Known about the structure:
- This protein is of the alpha+beta class.
- It contains 30 helices and 28 strands.
Amino acid sequence: MDKTHTPDQAGENPSPRLSIPHPWSCEADELLSRLDVSVETGLSSGEAKRRRKEEGPNRLRQAKRRSVRKILADQFRNIIILLLLAATALSLAFGEIIEGIAIAAVILINAAIGFVMEWKAIRSMEALQKLGRVETTVRRDGKIQRVPAEQLVCGDIVLVEGGDVVTADVRLLESSKLQANESVLTGESVPVEKQAKALPEDLPLADRSNMLYKGTALTRGSAEGVIVATGMNTKLGRISSLVEEVEAEQAPLQKRLDGFARRLIWVTLIIAALIGVTGVLSGKDAFLIIETSIALAVATVPEGLPIVATIALARGMWRMARRNALVEQLSAVETLGSTNLILTDKTGTLTENRMSLRHVLFENGQVSLEEEQEEQQTPLAREGQPVAPQRDELLREALTVGVLCNNASFDPDKENGSVGEPMEVALLRAGAKVGLHREELLERMPEAREVAFDSETKMMATFHRSNDSHYVAVKGAPEAVLDVCTELRTGEEVARLDKPTRQEWSQRNQQMAEDGLRMLAVARKTVESAEAEPYEDLTFLGLLGLLDPPREKVREAIQACHQAGIRVIMITGDQAATARHVARAVSLLEDDQAEEPILTGRDLRGVDSLSAEETERLLQAAIFARTSPQQKLDLITLHQQRGAIVAMIGDGVNDAPALKKADIGVAMGRRGTQVAREAADMILEDDAFSTIVAAIEQGRIIFGNIRKFVLYLLSCNVSEIMIVGLASLANAPLPILPLQILFLNLVTDVFPALALGVGEGEPRMMQRPPRDPREPILEPHHWYTIGGYGLLITLAVLGALAVALVLLEMERQRAVTISFLTLAFAQLWHVFDMRGSDSKVLRNEITRNRWVWGSLVLCIGLLLGALYIPGLSDVLEVTHPGRSGWLLVAGMSLMPMIVAQLVKIALRSRRQGN
């Protein structure tokens, strides 16, 4: 009987060659032997490449792409095509063979344009989804390095810590206070403790505490493990293979446009039917008027709105990607345009996250490190006098703790030779420049145990074997470390650390923090056992002050936010004094606000029971220090309840709930944890605050562009309805014929609308307040604008027809040609009416849009082709208008644009006058 693996056994058989059933029940040595890998060196690059060729890439099976055939077939599945097919059948029934063929050609051309637009939109979105790349820390060739998750193979030794998303199924070899959120697999939202010991074979997944599974998230701690399954052989891969393919996400804006277009279809059909009935009752040719009604219904429905919106969104997302803002969801683009509050972290967002150790404060003085130079040795000074680091034992011990109690790696010989937290890299760099190298220290004092950093204790500890005892190195927040120290190193001696001395050190910490330094305390002790409690009876060594300078352009970006009506609030885990210094440096606090109290996490406790006055105080505050993840969540909720649209910038695993809660969750691309990136709607690939400001601007531009092309399309379509309707009521000749209407639908509707959709927006976009998220695409005054534009074009076309027939006494075909050309060119010039009301007449976002000029050249070429290409001119029933006819077309087609521009100028002058 065949033995197959159930989904619950996913990850047990990664490949035939490396088949390891129940890896959680294997002892570590046996597992490593069967995987043919050493913990110390990991796989070689060559062996990893060979295994990857055998196993395939470490990724889940991707959803099936929409094929070219399906995209093309979808173009024929809508009511517009049905109407055109009805018109084709009607033409053939009345014996109008040429017109029937022409309408069939229109069907094919319409389908071709729709196909190209949709194909471009779909492929653009697929390409955008490939921009993000997850990396994993592994040990290969004896070195720690970051590799793309897709390149992981069975046998890879991986190093993980709180904030990482697990990228393959891993059997743990070592762990320290590790917890994982496995809700994606088990449904249990509470993080589970992990350990490295072998377990019984018959355990369910939820009890396999020595396993990490692909797709789960680490909430705290650190660990080392070996990969036992990748790709579709993982637990998540087996489950995903059972899941049906789902439809791609559609943004709310696209849904609204789609629904808007559907409602407009029925309104248009009713109007077209009324025009048809009116025309027949007035004695016009029944076939002509019915065919005109169908063509009018087809032409006046903006069926391309959702597709053009998708292209506009994709184009805007590409612009954001070029500015290092990777949007994960289409819906986020729409929300960006209405964001009016940004909650931002300090480190790495407002600052460079390029830390350097500048000051080390001891009981017997302070050592200052000058700004880093190219030389290997860092200039040191104590009280202004040069210091030889080899002779300063207290300095060497403080830096030794910083180098040992560290999870980063640093190679001074490589340009990008650092991996890990910038603060820890700065400690390694400072240690290396005074001759303290982590690798050499670990050879003398091997690490026996690590107690990972915990956001609750705000400390980290490592145990190192030293002769018959263990050296414990501790670093963390100054107030936390001081609380667990009982002694103070004063030089060569050790003194008791009493309460007054603690207070003195707290004041020193405060003074250094006020200079903008990020403060860290270091301590140590010696114990007999590696299982001893790390955070008690410690000897305090001193304070380390690290400098993280403000980012360039942050000041300008915050000022741009204020001009755009967007509040910026700093919410950080750092000290209040440090936060105040940075806030003043980046203009988050103005000079007159310099002494305003900085609120802390304590002020956010019990927000549900605060008085109205206390709540208002929280809402008005610009800086929060020493905050916890839950307090960030409470602050977001508080502002959302007051109607704010909140963008939250975060980087840690504990920021994930706040990123989910915010209207726009923004994660750091460089220093952000994978958990934060998974929870976010947008990723800042350069970790720069100015990038989110640029993204908000793009969000506003995209919505503005969509509104522009909706206004443009509807005003053009309304003009066509008015022209045919008024001509029917007046019992005048039809100014535009059925095939001419369809031709205009393909020419003047599509290309200028696309050009408007991908424009770069108005230059003053960020000098306006955010729009209300409940604001519809078209407000009531926009409908009046559409009606006004439509009426201007209608009067110009009917006026041109009347002049041609009455004053110039032209024959009917030439007169209809003139009205057709007048309508076509009036609609083309109408694109210039879409400029912002505050922009200049000749220099604005429309005249600067090269796509607009390209679309005009293309459309004019198509119109001339329709007029002068034999055969096509016969089908459209147009003829050469003559010199007088061209002059009439030029004058009458420009008239609506001139009047519209004069009205815009008058309204702008009136607003400025008020």
